[in-house]
Amino acid sequence: MQYPHPEVTKFLASQPLKMFINGEWTAAVSGDTFETRDPGDGKVIAKVAAGDKRDVDRAVAAARDAFRKSDWATMPANDRAVIIHRLADLVDKHTEILAQIESMDVGKPLAQPMNGDVPNVAQTLRYYADLSVHTRRREPIAVSGFDARTVRSPYGVCGFVFPWNFPILLVGWGISPALAAGNTVVIKPAEDTPLSTLYFCKLAEEAGIPKGVINVVTGLGETAGAALSQHPGINRMSFTGSPEVGRLIAESCGRNLVPVKLELGGKGAAVLFDDIDIDATAKALAGAITLNSGQVCCTATRWIVHERILDKLANRAAEVLSGIQIGHGSDATTGMGPVVSEKQRQRVLGYLEKGEREGARSLLRGGAANVKGHEEGYYVKPALLTGSPDNVCAREEIFGPVAYVMPFRDEAEAIELVNRSSYGLANSVWSQNLDRANRVAERLVAGNSWINAHNLFPHGVAYAGCNLSGMGGGVLGPDTLMDYLRPQSIVRPLG
Ligand code: NAD
Fold first, then answer.
1. Whose CA is nearest to atom 34 of ligand 1?
2. Rg of the chain over all Cα atoms, to the nearest angstrom
3. Cα(168) to centroid of ligand 1, in Å?
4. Is the distance from CB of 5 to CB of 98 less than 8 angstroms?
5. Cα distances (angstroms) measured from residue 373 to each of 9, 250, 327, 370, 489
6. Which residues lie closer than 8 Å to 216 by C-beta, 6 or more apart?
7. Percentage of residues in the chain having pLDDT higher than 90
8. Which residues lie below 8 Å from residue 314, measured CB to CB, with a gap of 6+?
9. What is the pLDDT of residue 1?
10. For a substitution probing ligand 1, which of 168, 170, 186, 242 has the most ligand atoms within 8 Å of its CB?
11. Calpha distance 188→78 (Å, rounded)
12. What is the pTM of this model?
C-alpha cells in the first residue's frame, strides 16, 4: 500500500480545507481556520475552516431547504436506499484513503480503520438502507368507530456533534438511520479530527446525495457545536461525547423542545470468575484497554477479578501489555498508537498521579512513552492499577490505556462493585458457567452487558447508555431508525 496514497496528498493539498454546505465547498464566513495535528508526531496536518454561528445558520438553512424542496424526504424508501447503497460502495472503494486519513488524524494504527472503522461505515449505511425499505410507515389501528392509522415521516433537519475517538465510524452510526428515514443532516465533527468526515462528503457528492442533505460545519465546540445544538431550526439533535458537554447540549435542546440523543462516556467493568481461561482472558482484556489507545467509551476499564485468580490474571495481563509495541499509526508493527492530543496525554498522566496520591498501587507502571523518530508524539504506556474502589481512577473516565483491578469474593460483591459506578454504558461477564454469566449480566446496571467478550457492536443490537452514559435510545438497533421517524395518527369517525 502506498503511504500516503496520492489521493490523500491531493485532498490535503488544497488548504485551508473548506467545509461542506449545500453541496458547495466553502470557507468560514469569518475566514478563520484552526489546525489539526498528527498525534504521532505533533505536526500540523491541515488548516481547516473554523465555522461559527453564521456558518451553522447557513448549513441549517440548506438542510431545511433540502428537506422541503429536494425529493430526499419524499422519494420512495427503495430509491433512497439505492443512493445510500451507492455511498456504501464508494466508502468500500475508498477504504484505503479514508483509513489513511483517519489514522493520520486520530493516531490509530492503520490496520484498525482499514479493517474495522471504515468497513463498519459501509455496513451501517447498508444495514439502515435495507431496514428502511422493510419498515412499515403506515400501520392501521383497530379502534371501534374510527378509521385510524399511524403514519411515520422523517422529522426534518437532524444535528450531530461527534467526538474525536472514532470520527468516521460514529458518523456512520449516527447519520445512517437519519438519512435512511429521509431526514437531512448537519454534522459538527470534533476539532481534533475533522478530516475523514470532510472526505466522506466527497463520496456523498459522488453517490448523488442531493445538495443540502448532508452538511458539515467544521469548528470548535464552544462556537460551532454550541450554535448547532442551540439552533431553533433543527428538529432532532444527537450528541456523542463527554457527559459535561452532553448536559449543555441537553439544556439547549430542552429550551427549544428538540428531542435529543446523548451517547456519553463510560467506566466499563469486566467481571472475571475463577473458571476462566486466564491466558486468553488476559490477552482479550489487554487488547480491549489498548484498542484505540484506550480511548473507547465502553471499554473494560475496571477489571473485577475473583480473588483466587487475581494475581495470575494481573501478572499475565501485565506481560501481554508490556509486549505491545507503541508507535506511529503508519508503522505496520505498531500495536498501540498515541492518544489524540497533548491535552489528552496530560489528562491520562494526571489521572495516574492523582490515583497514586489517593493510594492506588501500580501493577504495571504507566506514564509517558517515547517513540524513536517520533519524539513529539503524544504517546503513553499502558498501566494497571489496583487499590480501593473509591480511588479516583476506579471512579472516573480516564480515556487512556489504563485499567483498575479489584478483587471480589462472591457474585453479590462483584455486582455491587460494578453497579457503584455513576456511568451505565457497558460491562462484561467472563465465566464458563453460562447460567451464572447470564444471571450476573442481567443484574448489571448499564445499556449493554457482554458475555465472554468485550466491545461487541453487531448491527441490529441497540448500543445505548443509561445514567451518566446517556439517554435517548442509543444507536445501531432497529429502533434507531424509528427514532428518526415522526409518528402521526390519522383518524376519521366512521358514520
Ligand atoms: P467532548 O464532549 O469534549 O467533545 C465532543 C464534541 O462536542 C466535539 O465535537 C466538541 O467540539 C463538541 N463540543 C465541545 N463543547 C461544546 C459545546 N459547548 N457545545 C456543543 N458542542 C461542544 O468529548 P471528546 O473529548 O471529544 O470525546 C470523548 C468523550 O466521548 C468521552 O467521554 C467518551 O466516553 C465519549 N464517547 C461516547 C461514545 C458513546 O457511544 N457513548 C462514543 C465515543 C465517545
1. 265
2. 23
3. 14
4. no
5. 22, 44, 10, 9, 64
6. 19, 20, 21, 59, 186, 187, 188, 189, 194, 197, 198, 201
7. 100
8. 303, 305, 363, 384, 386, 405
9. 76
10. 242
11. 28
12. 0.97
Tell me which residue of 181, 188, 260 sits closest to 223, measured CA to CA: 188
Q: Is 1 exposed, middle or buried (0-12, 13-18, 19+ CB in 10 A)?
A: exposed
Could you confirm whether 297 is annotated as catalytic? Answer: yes
- The three-state secondary structure class of 419 is helix
Choose one of 36, 53, 240 to mutate for the ligand 1 pocket test, by most ligand atoms within 8 angstroms of C-beta.
240
- 451 strand-pairing partners: 429
Cα–Cα distance, 39 to 378 (Å, whole number): 6
Q: Is the pLDDT of residue 49 over 90?
A: yes
DSSP result, 118-166: HHHHHHHHHHHHHHHHT--SEEEE--TTEEEEEEEEE-SEEEEE--SSS
The answer to whether the Cα torsion of 431, 423, 263, 404 is positive or negative is negative
Compute, in angstroms, the gap from residue 246 CA to the centroid of ligand 1: 7
Nearest partner of 159 among 87, 52, 233, judged by Cα:
233
| Residues 123, 280: Cα–Cα separation, whole Å | 29
**CA–CA dist 15, 17 (Å, integer):** 5
* Per-residue CA distances from 192 to 147, 226, 307, 342 (Å): 54, 16, 41, 11
Residue 187 has pLDDT above 80, yes or no: yes
pLDDT in tens, 458-487: 999 999 999 999 999 999 999 999 999 999
| pLDDT per residue as tens digits for the range 131-177 | 999 999 999 999 999 999 999 999 999 999 999 999 999 999 999 99
Active site residue 263: yes
List CB contacts of 261: < 8 A, sequence separation 6 or more: 236, 237, 238, 239, 470, 471, 472, 473, 474, 475, 483
For cell 490523500, name the residue: 8
**Which residues have any ligand 1 atom within 6 Å of their CB?**
161-166, 188, 190-191, 221-222, 225-226, 229, 240-242, 245, 248-249, 263-266, 297, 397, 399, 425, 465, 470
For CA atoms 329, 334, 335, 341, the dihedral sign is negative
